Please model this.
Amino acid sequence: MHHSSKFKIPMGPQHPALKEPESFSIALKGEKIMGVDIRLGYNHRGIEKACEERTFVQDVYLIERVCGICSHSHSTAFVQGVEEIAGLIVPPRAQYIRTLIGELERVHSHLLWLGVAGHEIGFDTLLMYTWRDREIVMDILALLSGNRVNYGMNMIGGVRRNVTEEQAQDILKGVKTLEERTKYYIEVATQETTIIKRLSGVGVLKKDDALRLGAVGPTARASGVEYDVRRNDPYAAYAELDFNVITDTNSDVYGRTIVRVKELLESYKMIRQCLKNLPNGPIAVKAPRKIPAGEAISRYEAPRGEDVHYIKSNGGEKPERVKVRAPTLANIQAVKHMLKDRYLADMPIVVAAIDPCFSCTDRLVSVKGNAGKSKKILTWEALRNYSVEWHQVHGIDFTELSYKFRTKMERF
Amino acid sequence: MRPGKMLREVLKHLFKKPATNMYPAEKLDMPKTYRGKLIFHADKCIGCKLCVRDCPSGAITINKIGEKQFEAVLDLGKCIYCAQCVDSCLKKALEATNDVELAQLDSKKLKVVLGEKSGSSS
Model:
């Protein structure tokens, strides 16, 4: 290949580094990345529309399934919004239990990330160790809520499960082991030469750029932006807890690693405080089936960054509009910037460093014509025909298959 | 900065027993709070169908089989095991169990009439 010529390589929709469908079109000059075009939309599930078709009670479970890793984040953000519209006062015990689950979730998410990051840089030992330790926190979550993922802890007006004294002791025991392990990981991250050399200077995002591109969560905090919803706009029980907002000035993938492992320690601190100060009393208040008309924006610091939910009610049993802004959507533009002028080999770890969750991010994409004003709404049948025609033009014939599919569908 | 920081840990693990369990020979206890397959107390059901209304996935149906007698049919394939129906039931006619081994080779067998016990599938 001649050095001056640029060529484009597509990565995805089945991305080799992250088992999620998204597409990167990378313009390369030699080994250097000249520009990246990110295309989302392969995993659009129509959750927002589905929420409008269901009642508020059902939506809590649907919203919880926006993301498998930060399920509690999404459901808490949703119920907080609904509670705000309905004017419900959530009992303090429920607030503390929500915070507790939220922090346990952060622990499991950050440990998961640390493992994935290790895997992306070929340090699979770290993956094995962190994921083994993650089992401890997964077991704690299963103990509290019954499930390892999609805990189903939230309901409108409170939480569904109480925390007993025995469970609290088990949690404290697990957290103690985890804290020891995390201290060891901090030692590894700050001393192991391979990690430092591989991650330093990779995926640099300066403070100004982080602010300009709207980065959130650990990605922004690693660039020195001291912003955390838990501190800046406290929800649940965070206003009563004592914790530090971890920032770092490295502004690269290494900085993001440091921020996340140090945040783990803060989470353990908060879990202990939650259990120590757990107030007595009821864990839920009765919520009305019909939520009064109104709208609310609810913010939540998910492990990956700020999660924003918008809920609008028209006074019925079903919401009129639900909008979810997952943290990855805010961070994805920063990735484009981070990859510029870097080498292709850095791509997996740079993408992984924002801890992306593309399924969470996939929301409605409205396709505009070239003129920019024509908008077309297609029915399901028309959309399928359009897709069949499109593939025919590109040399794949789905007509036979589509006939078979239709006859099969008619039988149902 | 020191290379091979994790080496000691790696060597230590050569002699440890595996962290995984030998399922199905060795089964783990499900947590008490687990929401598995439901059981249905037919004598308590008044047929208000609040469970049907609140089910996020439309998995449960309540059929009238006689005067003040109802049966609950659950589609195990549709059920998301959130146990909202258990919370919604005013008469506590539904209960979640620890039963988790619900896989079937025949998809028709996933639709079950709920009984007082979770073990039997019809």
Q: What stands out?
A: Residues 30-113 of chain B form a domain with the Alpha-Beta Plaits fold (CATH 3.30.70.3270). The longest strand of chain B covers residues 60-66.
